[in-house]
Amino acid sequence: MSYEDVIQSLVLFMREFDSTAKAKLRSMVIMSSDYDNRDKKFMLKTSLYDIFWKIPQAVDDGFNHYLNEKMEFYYHLSEYHKVNCNKLQGKPCNICKVRINNFDLLFEEGIAA
What we know:
This protein is mostly helical.
């Protein structure tokens, strides 16, 4: 997956995280902003592995396996959403809301986590 695809998956995956985990990911994104995409992906993976210690399923399944399953699931959800999003009366759907909130949390300046 490209870094852009990873981010699209991550913003949906973040709905499963608590505010502390989200703040950690935001800090990582800010710190890695001047790095190339390969290094950003590595730093993101390392940060996620730290978060996974608090998730029993991740510990039981193995971090890499857990991460791959989640990222693949949310990547496909994101791709499906791109094609099938139905904005009723111009209002964003629930997936749009999650994407917007978490994307803004990761990348907008001045947002407190």
